[in-house]
Amino acid sequence: MKAIEIFKELGIEYEEMKVKGNSTPRYRAKVEPDKLEEIIKKFKTQGFKHFVALSCVDWIKEGNMELIYHLFSYDTLEDVFLSIYLPRDEPKYKTLRHLFPQIETYEREVHEMFGVEFEGNDRLGEFILEDWNDMPPMRKDFDTVKYVKEKYESVPLVEGRGDKQ
Amino acid sequence: MTDNPNPLPSIIPEKDWKKIQRMLSKRSLWMIHFCTGCGAMEMPPTMTSRYDMERFGIIPMATPRQADLLLVTGYVAVKTLKRIVRVYEQMQDPKYVISFGSCPINGGLYWDSYNTIKRLDKYIPVDLYIAGCMPRPEAIMDAFLKLMKDIDEGRADGWLRYRKYYDKYRANQMRVFKRWDE
Amino acid sequence: MSIVNILIQSTLVALYLFLAICIGLLFMGIARKVTARIQNRVGPPIYQNFIDVGKLLAKKTNIKHNWIFDFAPLFALAGVLLALAYLPMGGYKMLSGTGDLILLLYIIAIPALGFALGSGASANPNAGVGVMRALTLMLSYEMPFLLVLLALMIFYNTASLSTLLEKQMSFAWGIVALPISALAADIALQGMMMEKPFDIPIAPHEIASGPLVEFGGKYLGMLMLYSAGSVVLETTLFVDLFLGGGVVLNPATYGVVAYVVNYLVWFALIFVVWMIAVFINAVFPRFRIEQAFKFYWKWPTVIAAIGLAQAYIMSVFLGVIP
Q1: pLDDT band (50, 70, 90) for residue A165
Q2: Are strands A64-73 and A50-59 parallel, antiparallel or unpaired?
Q3: Is B31 within 8 Å of B66 (Cβ atoms)?
Q4: Mean pLDDT over residues A7-33, rounded?
Q5: What pLDDT is attached to residue C27?
Q6: What is the average per-residue pLDDT within C262-282?
Q7: Is the pLDDT score of C69 beyond 50?
Q8: Residue B1: what pLDDT?
Q9: Is residue B5 part of a domain?
Q10: Does residue B76 lie in a domain region?
């Protein structure tokens, strides 16, 4: 089933995206966080069996966190991006790992890099960043240059020669 | 354990004995390459028939226990640094470190990255740097020859520095690690 | 026997064993050079392995596991020296006894087992996998090898190595009389020496050099001497069984000259056997352990069984008795 037909059946507004040099049809839709699970289930039953990625964008001016669920169908060769917006101050969403098991890993990464909480995922915690004790680093208000100066540039050099050989 | 590092009776003086040891260890550098970044790609041509580092007695080893030379090829993240320190401490003295490419010198491309340490020399003693992004195999061979010369003249003393200033190095390491599981 | 005689005898034994280790190191260096030339490289100088051993023995060593681990390199080196002492090198035999062919089979297993014990004690998972593979490989190549030994014992009607050498000198070399068995023995030898395609236990790219993974510094130097000794041990075993041990002149008639000539001939013969193994090693990839096991229990075993039948027919029905 084509993505356009599914969108029409569900009554969601979508926009078609054009990428230079790539003719794969891509559709982007903004959906309500409450309905996302049902929509992904619908897409999954209609041939969109490949969960490609879960990514996150920090819209600091609007005060939003955008979570993008990226699906692909091998039957019709179409890409679908479903995005939800969460409040930036306290981003919280439920886990969808029961739909696609690989979502768990993406949720762990998004939790670590952006600080989004996923209720129901019990494996959130230290993942890629080891020994991290600051705010999540991919947030736009994180000042990397200042952090680098404080953490790495301030480490003193060990001076002096070794014992004579 | 006695303090005498000289296993032979004093027929050979201590100084000459160390000279012999340096002469042997410069001709037989066994290398473990810690492939952190893109630099690992330059190692196969250096090992294989075009540049052939085995003619200087340098062969890649599989484990740190057997190696004399640690090659850090590329940027070092905090997580990687912990492993590098472990590998370095598992190697047997005398041991040498070559840091490879511009990333372990001052951060290189990752100068403002939140997760890469900028200068490897602050955490473990580095005997030789190869600058470049990436250094070509000729540069690596040149560095090996330079290191052999340094060892011969007794200037490659990183392992002695690590012993002498171990507290300082460990303090520096603990500034970027939250914990050290041992 | 007077005390002077004993002293001379023990000096000779020490000299022979020292020479054997040196020859092993030289052979390993030659193998590296030959492999490099096959791969179109320059390669290290042939004395490179002497430098390596010297460097390893001069290194400071600070590895603490337990006393079995400390004991293992000594165990391996001592085992290989004992086995070398039982093997006639160039006709000169240090220790002797009747039925030492069977004894030798047990002694050859000692260094490998000691080595396995030590690496097992290091509690490294890679070492455990390597030891398991080494013991499985041993199980695989010993099947054809035992059949080959049986064929030799039936044909030459002896289980003593010195008698075997005498009979080979007076009658014909084993490779002439029993060519089929010799072929099976050479295939088994490749696995015994752990050269490719049977370098499964020490596969550096899979299991980080397997049993050697925790050994470094002086321990590794000792183990390098062990492997140098075992190169000589295994090539000499083949030469003694099938190429007459290099004995061309009878020491009883020619005296010291015979010993020198025999030693040189033995050296040339083990060099040839080693070169065959090195050439096979240079061009082959690696088997998996179950492939090696299947291979050994299939082809070399069949060949060895045919060789056994040939030996039996020749000695019992055709009446060829050396």
Answers
A1: low
A2: antiparallel
A3: no
A4: 85
A5: 92
A6: 89
A7: yes
A8: 44
A9: no
A10: yes
Token pair belonging to C16: 């022979």
Contact B63 C209 (CB under 8 A): yes
Q: At residue C268, what are phi and psi to the nearest 5 degrees? A: -60, -40
Q: Which of B65-79, C104-118, C197-211 has the highest mean pLDDT?
A: B65-79
C-alpha distances in Å from residue A91, one per residue of A55, A88, B62: 14, 5, 46
Domain made up of A3-153: CATH architecture: 2-Layer Sandwich (3.30)
Asked whether the beta carbons of residue A144 and residue B112 sit closer than 8 angstroms, the reply is yes
Helix (H) or strand (E) holding A7: helix A3-10
Which pair of structure tokens corresponds to residue C221? 């130097």
For residue C42, is pLDDT > 50? yes
**What is the residue range of B67's domain?**
21-168
Does C164 map to a domain? yes
Tell me how many domains chain B contains: 1
Give the CATH number, domain containing residue B91: 3.40.50.12280
CB pairs B-C closer than 8 Å: 86
Please indicate whether, in this complex, the C-beta atoms of B177 and A147 are within 8 angstroms of each other.
Answer: no
Residue B64: name the closest of B41, B81, B40, B86 by CA.
B86
> Across the interface, which of C43, C52, C62 has its CB nearest the CB of B92?
C62
pLDDT in tens, A68-85: 999 998 888 888 998 999
pLDDT recorded at residue C58: 86
Q: Indicate the pTM of the whole model.
A: 0.83
Residues of C in contact with B64 (CB under 8 A): 216
Number of domains in chain C: 1
Euclidean distance between CA atoms B139 and A88, whole angstroms:
49
Q: A-chain residues within 8 Å CB-CB of B20? A: none
Give me the sign of the Cα torsion angle A60, A61, A67, A70.
Answer: negative
**Cis peptide, bond prior to residue C197, ω within 30 of zero:** yes
Question: Is C322 among the domain residues?
Answer: no
Cβ distance B154 to A128 less than 8 Å, yes or no, reads no
**A-B contacts (CB, under 8 Å):** 79
Is residue C8, in this structure, part of any structural domain at all?
no
Show me where the domains of chain A are located. 3-153
Is C178 a member of any domain? yes
> Residue C252 is part of which domain span?
16-317
Which tokens belong to A32? 């309500």
Q: B17, exposed or middle or buried, with CB in 10 Å at 0-12, 13-18, 19+? A: middle
The yes-or-no verdict on residue B3 having pLDDT over 60 is no
Token pair listed for A56 = 């996150």
CA distance linking residue C267 with residue C274, whole number of Å = 10
| Residue C311's pLDDT band (cuts 50, 70, 90) | confident
Tell whether B16 is covered by a domain. no
Note whether residue B46 is domain-resident: yes
Tell me what pLDDT residue A21 has.
84
